[in-house]
Structures are given as C-alpha cells and as structure tokens.
Write a structure and sequence with these properties.
0% strand, 103 residues, single chain, mainly alpha, 66% helix
C-alpha cells in the first residue's frame, strides 16, 4: 500500500467496484499473460547472458520490454472487458514469439 505524505493510502480515493467472478478470472488471466511475457523476456536475457559473447543491446532491449510490460500491467482495469480480452491474447502471443526466438 502506498501512502501519501499525509499518511492516507492512495487507495482511499478509489471508487468501490464489485467484480463479477467472470471479470476477476479474466483480469487475473490478463495479468498472468503479461507475467508470462515478462518471464519470456527473462528467459531471453538468461540465454543471452549465457553466451560466450552476449550482446548487451539484446539484454538492454529485453529489460526495457520488461519495464514497459510492468507499466502496461499496472494500467489494466478489470471493468474494461475489451482491453482485458485484448491483453490476454496480445501478451500470450508476445510470450510465444519471444520464446520461439530462443529455439
């Protein structure tokens, strides 16, 4: 929980939201898809670092991608069903593409 200077949590300003089981499951699946893509980039970094002559540009790009993914994950909102559905498909595809590049 993040606190402001006055000691009040930033969550204090959030509006209440009742999640349906369907929204909860879809949101969690979208977050896991993003996490899978982050993990795929971790595998890419590890594979590159294991090489005799690792390419620092590949490692830097993968770390930058992980940072972007973390920000995108934070922007997901359970009530945005369309965005959640897009995120699930997109990030699962990103993870597959990154891992296929390692083969």
């Amino acid at each position: 929980m993040t606190a402001r200077d006055n000691g009040i949590s930033v969550t204090h300003d959030l509006e209440p939201h009742d999640w349906s089981n369907e929204e909860t499951a879809a949101y969690e699946a979208a977050v896991e898809a993003v996490n899978g893509a982050v993990g795929a980039y971790s595998a890419l970094i590890a594979a590159e670092e294991a090489k005799d002559a690792p390419d620092p540009a590949v490692i830097e790009a993968a770390r930058a991608a992980q940072g972007r993914l973390a920000k995108e994950r934070e922007q997901l909102r359970s009530a945005d069903r369309e965005r959640i559905a897009e995120a699930r498909a997109h990030y699962a595809r990103v993870a597959r593409e990154v891992l296929e590049g390692l083969a």
